[in-house]
């Protein structure tokens, strides 16, 4: 497969997503072309296969830059202030400057934290990102949202900072564990439902089309998802209006994640799995015939791509989990008045920002999405 490039401009600066079978050569070519002080901090997730990391490291050595390698671990719990400060200290200890380069290689956790690091260190260093989970590949790698969790609140510290380059590697995609792979499909389904019928049509066809070995189809669905996301954020970076639609499913997802992390086990649900459940909840909050059709379609798509359609919880924790999900909804960052907001999708491609003002219906939805085991 040839290389695919998506270019988009934010604040008069061009950023690129480069999708290729082999990204290593592309990275060193780009490093050669930028103005830098010849220092690179390469931060990577320890769960990525050794072979892939060794290959990138050995290519980076060819650049002749001073290289600092730092292994970290994804998992939502690690997206915290302590780990961010450790990375900061590494930059200071090694006398990195504004002209140094930070390259991160990992899922949404590593990307969000390294994006924040790159934006804060000396008010901004050059930042390249290599996403390695499907969630990161189809969603978190672009849009510039960075952040860490603090005081139990997801992304409570963060800002906007765009990686100059994002490198999507087919080799990395082929190596993603199955659960991480399918988890990302929730964000693909989300983008289709809020703004791209072509994605939904494609996903409804044979599931095998999205098998990893089917590289042409996979490239199509990934690039189509990224282009849809760019459409939603390019003129609304700070999420005042149109970009909010990308939060479809997330009012509930974040709350469900907080509750399951607290009462079940950390990373009980992957982010994408929670987004899938969140989309079902947000459709259930709506009323009307169209909503029923959209609900059925969403459930069908989630099942087809191995994503949960209910939250299985032990009976003895039901009350606690329900009330934590309920309370979490009111902490959602989209809230501007008294009531929390969510995204309603009545029909494919038609999304709206809505307020939750029927708290009885909210309770019912939480009840309906959970299943006692
Ligand atoms: N910035 C954004 O726009 C945005 C969008 C969506 C999600 N997010 C954030 O992303 C995070 C979730 O991202 P995620 O689902 O990628 O989780 P993650 O980064 O925690 O990765 C999930 C697991 O997969 C492992 N892993 C990563 N790459 C791997 C690979 N190639 N092979 C084997 N294991 C690998 C990680 O170590 C981790 O255990 C959340 O914190 C969420 O808030 C941010």
Give the topology string: H per helix, E per strand. EEHEHEHEHEHEEEHHHHHHHHEHEEHE
Gross geometry: globular
Distance between the termini: 46 Å
How many separate domains make up the residues? 2
Bound molecules: nicotinamide-adenine-dinucleotide
Uncertain spans: none
Kindly estimate the percentage of residues that lie in beta strands according to DSSP. 15-25%
Topology:
Layout: E1 4-10, E2 13-20, H1 24-33, E3 39-45, H2 50-62, E4 66-72, H3 81-93, E5 101-106, H4 108-120, E6 126-131, H5 134-140, E7 148-150, E8 153-157, E9 165-169, H6 170-173, H7 178-183, H8 185-195, H9 197-204, H10 215-233, H11 250-263, H12 271-285, H13 289-304, E10 311-313, H14 318-329, E11 341-347, E12 350-355, H15 359-369, E13 370-372
Helix pairs in contact: 1-2, 5-8, 8-9, 8-10, 8-12, 11-12, 11-14, 12-13, 12-15
The structure holds nicotinamide-adenine-dinucleotide.
């Amino acid at each position: 497969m040839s290389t695919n490039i998506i270019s988009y401009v934010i604040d008069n600066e061009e950023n690129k997503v480069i999708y290729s079978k082999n990204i290593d050569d592309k990275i060193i070519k780009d490093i050669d072309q930028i103005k830098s002080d010849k220092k690179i901090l390469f931060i990577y997730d320890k769960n990525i296969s050794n072979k892939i990391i060794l290959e990138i490291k050995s290519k980076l050595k060819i650049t002749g830059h001073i290289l600092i390698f730092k292994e970290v671990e994804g998992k939502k719990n690690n997206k915290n202030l302590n780990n961010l400060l450790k990375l900061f200290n590494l930059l200071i200890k090694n006398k990195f400057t504004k002209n140094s380069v930070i390259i991160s290689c990992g899922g949404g956790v590593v990307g969000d934290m390294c994006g924040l690091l790159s934006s804060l260190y000396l008010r901004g260093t050059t930042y390249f990102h290599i996403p390695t989970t499907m969630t990161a590949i189809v969603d978190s790698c672009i849009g510039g949202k960075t952040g860490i969790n603090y005081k139990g609140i997801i992304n409570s510290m963060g800002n906007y900072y765009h990686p100059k380059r994002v490198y999507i590697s087919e080799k990395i995609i082929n190596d993603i564990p199955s659960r991480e792979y399918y988890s990302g499909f929730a964000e693909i389904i989300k983008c289709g439902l809020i703004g791209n019928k072509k994605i939904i049509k494609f996903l409804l066809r044979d599931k095998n089309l999205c098998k990893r070995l089917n590289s042409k189809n996979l490239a199509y669905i990934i690039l189509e998802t990224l282009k849809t996301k760019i459409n939603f954020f390019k003129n609304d970076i700070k999420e005042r209006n149109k970009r909010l639609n990308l939060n479809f499913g997330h009012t509930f997802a974040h709350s469900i994640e907080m509750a399951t992390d607290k009462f079940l086990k950390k990373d009980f649900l992957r982010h994408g799995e929670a987004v899938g459940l969140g989309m079902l909840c947000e459709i259930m909050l709506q009323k009307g015939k169209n909503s029923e059709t959209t609900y059925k379609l969403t459930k069908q798509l989630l099942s087809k791509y191995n994503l949960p359609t209910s939250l299985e919880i032990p009976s003895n924790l039901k009350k606690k989990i329900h009330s934590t999900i309920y309370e979490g909804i009111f902490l959602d960052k989209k809230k501007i008045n008294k009531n929390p907001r969510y995204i309603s999708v009545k029909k494919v491609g038609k999304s709206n920002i809505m307020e939750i003002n029927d708290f009885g219906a909210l309770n019912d939805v939480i009840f309906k999405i959970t299943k006692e085991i």
